[in-house]
Amino acid sequence: MTYVTDSLTVRDNRTGQEYDVPITDGTIRAGDIGQIKVADDEPGLAVYDPGFLNTASCRSAITFIDGDKGILEYRGYPIEQLAENSTFLEVAYLLVHGSLPTKDEYDQWVHNITYHTFVHENVKSFMEGFRYDAHPMGMLMASVGALSTFYPESRNISAADNRAIQVIRMIAKMPTLGAFSFRHAQGKPYVYPDNELSYAANFLSMLFKMSEMKYEPDERLVKALDTLFILHADHEQNASTNAVRAVGSTQVDPYSAVSAGIGALFGPLHGGANEAVLRMLRRIGNVSEIPAFIEGVKNGNEKLMGFGHRVYKNYDPRARIIKKAADDVFDVTGVNPLLAVALELEKIALNDEYFVKRRLYPNVDFYSGLIYEALQFPPEFFTVLFAIGRTPGWLAQWLELVQDKEQKIARPKQIYTGDRTLDFTPAEERWA
Ligand code: CMC
């Protein structure tokens, strides 16, 4: 047998046969493993990987993460530089188009997004139909899915100009839908977009405007919210992006695919963690209660929410930036009293063998909830903020997917563990 240099030689001890499996980009193709068989009429060898711990599902040029070093880059640009010097809409352009905009491109992009912020009045009526206590993530998921019925042409995913307009619409309308869900819970009238305001300022206006002619948010809060959106804008193949890609791989319209992503983000192990962190901090309540709480975590009673990450085995770079943004927000709003609990919790956990051994560090959700609370958002609204930030990332990933010739409908294998070939007895005989 002649060996390829970058390859894996596999010897199947069932047959004694050797296989040369090429290695490309540090991966082997599961399809190559599938050629390893005991007999021609037997299924090939498969890979079992619940939760995709070690399986690449795509090739992507959007976001790079080095979890050991705590590095995050969008299209090659470090998150720290983007958070410091860019705007959310510029970052959205970068993610969607692959490179930074020229001045004309940027102005056109901002104009397009600003002028698509309104939703059809029937979308508003649809949202008004929810129960008074509906969770805003359920309302967001349903209303984004509903947009597919307002834009039926979005099903034509093979036309580039059609894809482009849906991307603009979704980035533009997400804050409007999010704000409507917020006002709904408060029994307040929905506020229409104000096209004279920036993306984040308009969002704050739709959330908090009452009878004043014009809502004028504090610029420091606008900046903090814009930064939070940047930090959440993409995170490569996380659970919700994987949901967008899996659903998008059926060639459905992008509203349906993103709606699936919002569902995945809702879960407490993913975007819902920011809500869970705040509830946890409130429950702990006081620094003196932390040791007992940590003991409970170590005994497996519960998790320390906002800690740990599938990819980061180091401090999440977004958590570091958020910690700083929190100080800027607290300058305006006053310090959130739960900050002291969070800081002490972090200190104790980072020095505790349980967390050190498992390489558990604060993630993006550990401090974001404290800022959101200081901005007067109720915990159930936190994940909506995450979803608005993540929308350009989901769409960039969806665009990449639909143009990737290698992609196929997402359809994993299973290891079947149930019964076989049972004989069915009709109910009247079984129950006689
Ligand atoms: N508190 C206590 N123990 C933990 C935690 C935690 N937050 N996270 C992981 N562990 C333990 C876990 O029990 C396991 O221990 P053992 O080896 O003894 O069984 C070990 O650490 C490895 O954890 P894992 O669950 O196998 O890791 P995973 O990669 O499957 O899960 C995670 C990653 C983020 C779901 C998990 O760390 C977690 O549940 N964290 C809390 C929820 C959270 O903060 N999620 C937000 C993630 S970042 C933003 C986002 O993605 O939306």
Nearest-integer average pLDDT: 95
Question: Which sequence of SSEs, written as H and E, runs from N to C?
Answer: EEHEEEHHHHHHHHHHHHHHHHHH
Categorize the overall geometry: globular
Low-pLDDT stretches are: none
Q: Could you give a short account of the major beta sheet?
A: 3 strands, antiparallel
Distance from first to last alpha carbon: 65 Å
Radius of gyration: 24 Å
Structure ligands = carboxymethyl coenzyme *A
Helix content: 40-55%
How much β-strand is present in the residues?
5-15%
| Coarse structural class | mainly alpha
Query: How many E-type strands?
Result: 5
Main sheet strand line-up: 3-4-5
Number of helices: 19
Describe what you observe in this structure:
- The structure is a single chain.
- This protein has about 425 residues and is mainly α.
- It is built from 19 helices and five strands.
- It has helices spanning about 30-35, 80-85, 90-95, 105-115, 120-130, 135-150, 160-185, 200-210, 220-230, 240-250, 255-265, 275-285, 290-300, 315-335, 340-350, 355, 365-375, 380-400, 425-430; strands spanning about 5-10, 15-20, 65, 70-75, 75-80.
- The protein has a three-stranded antiparallel beta sheet with strand order 3-4-5. Strands 1-2 form a two-stranded antiparallel sheet.
- Helix 6 runs antiparallel to helix 11.
- The mean pLDDT is about 95.
- The site of carboxymethyl coenzyme *A has 19 residues, from loops.
